[in-house]
Amino acid sequence: LLAQANHEKRMLINQLLDLKGSIRVICRVRPMMSSDALTAATSSSSILEIPSPDTVILAPDRTERIVYDFDRVIGPSEGQEEVFNEAKGLVDSVAEGYNVCMLFFGPTGSGKTYTMAGRPGDLGMAANALAHLFRLAREVDSKQQVRVSASILEIHNEQINDLLLAQNQQQPKLEIKEGSAGVEVPGLTIKPMAGMQEAEAIMQRGRAARGRGGPEEATRSHLVLTIYVTCTHRSTEATSSGKLHLVDLAGSERLAKGAVTSERTKEVQAVHKSLTVLGDVIQAIQQKSSHVPFRNSKLTRLLEDSIGFNSRTMVVLTCSPASEDASETRSTLEFGLKARKPEGLTRQGSTSPKRHFLKALRSTNE
Ligand code: ADP
Ligand code: MG
User: Which of 63, 93, 102, 325 is the most exposed place for a label (fewest CB within 10 A)?
Assistant: First the structure.
């Protein structure tokens, strides 16, 4: 109970101090599923323990236990609503004119798409965020006019594809530009939407278009859903605009070296490089480094005005609890560790003596 109270207090403090440029890292552990192969070498028990709402312990075998601390750890029995609760404040700030970026990171099969897009009757982050924005729009209706629109693109082999083109439209060559209003992709389709029904239809179109290259290609491309929100004050005409990027990242898994075609190799290298650059960018921001290597990949160029500095970012690590996925789960958690604020820069009030910030503790069980 005390741990819970402390956790809630810490969450409040974190929300209050959720300053510009901050990066929150949360981890979601999916349930064990029947597709998780249970061979003789593996076991049916989870390799992840969640002793408190912000700690996860990776125990891949009897001899090793690695403790990871994040802003929040969401367990296998918690639903989409709990994940959304962690992001509500960020969605609010989009309506206030901030740029926000949510990155869903993990290997294929760990729950990125489920967490971001959900499934019918089980809304994911994107639909929950949109519903929240439409709710906010109705609440402020008398004073402000709120416009919501969206684009969906895919970055595949460092090339941008518009996923909202009409069937008969030719894919144009899209480039990233820095306009007066921030990063732009001239020519990209941006669809206005008035409510959830339209929003669902647009997201469905994006999903269908991503699927066209086959499921294999989908795991080796990044999908970026961007929601644009413009608020105009009815009497003063003062306008604020913010955008929310939701990024279903390419699978973070390392593929076995042999038996890959050259096309595959190219895809794998492109994914590996862009995820590495993303990690470097996040780390540079957390360390308040003077050089942030945004320019090194299309993805980070696209997100340049929405990560760090005057914006807010959330990294959602998705993890499988199955023992056959131990090494991928471990590298996902390590990515999250890299994305956390370095020690000394952590906010006051967010530490307690029992917590081991940034320390992957290894202990041997005798
Ligand atoms: P990814 O996009 O990372 O490859 P998916 O989101 O497609 O992974 O998830 C793989 C499978 O696991 C899907 O069938 C999905 O519905 C299921 N799944 C993932 N996370 C959860 C969860 N938290 N609760 C229930 N099912 C989940
Ligand atoms: Mg997916």
Answer: 63
